[in-house]
Design a protein that fits this description.
heterodimer; A: 83 residues; alpha+beta; Translation Initiation Factor IF3; four-stranded mixed sheet; 3 helices; 34% helix; globular; B: 141 residues; Hypothetical Protein Ychn, Chain: A; five-stranded parallel sheet
Chain lengths: 83, 141
Amino acid sequence: MTPEELKKVQVAKTVDARGTACPGPLLEAKKTVGTIKSGDIMEVLSADEGTKSDLPKWCAKQGHEYLGTIEENGYFKVFMKKK
Amino acid sequence: MEKKKLCIGLYSGSVDKLTAAGIILSGAVADNMHVDIYVLLQGARAFRKDIGDNPDKLQMAENPALKAEFLQSLKTLKVKTWVEFFRECKTISEVKIHICGLAGKIWGAEKLDDFIDIADDICGIGAYITATQEADVNLFI
């Protein structure tokens, strides 16, 4: 999805992992995805560069759909749809 | 789908390698792996109840002169301690921690109760070897 499209998606849950370094964002995503329904969208906020590659790969392995990443001021948002 | 199995032979009892083990473990549980950790010689000492998360009682495997800097960086970056990593991972996926009986005895700890409460059982080397044969991935730290 384009950044413009991502800004408009309905997010079911936001994971704010900006205060943590790797593997914090990945673990928080793993814990939170279990609390949302299939088809729901989750966004993960992170300032950890490794998260940008970790989460898309994790989505691919777990069967979730990686929707894209938006850069913000000093952090970024990673969007995914639960399988 | 059957879960992939990771088997870790955790020989080290140094704070830097234990932290690395905790980070690797986090990645494994995020991937829904079933993890068996076999705590061997030096590792068993670190798992003793009176040692665990006390960095004053743990050495660094490498760059020992930088231990204070290393610990301060972990704190600044809000990285969990090795025990916190292990404890959290046990709540996320199937992680079993087995302490080598001989290793425990070497360090004066014989009963499960002598170790931090994340340890699941005390085992012999046969259990570790069997687990290595059954695992999809083996690591020795």
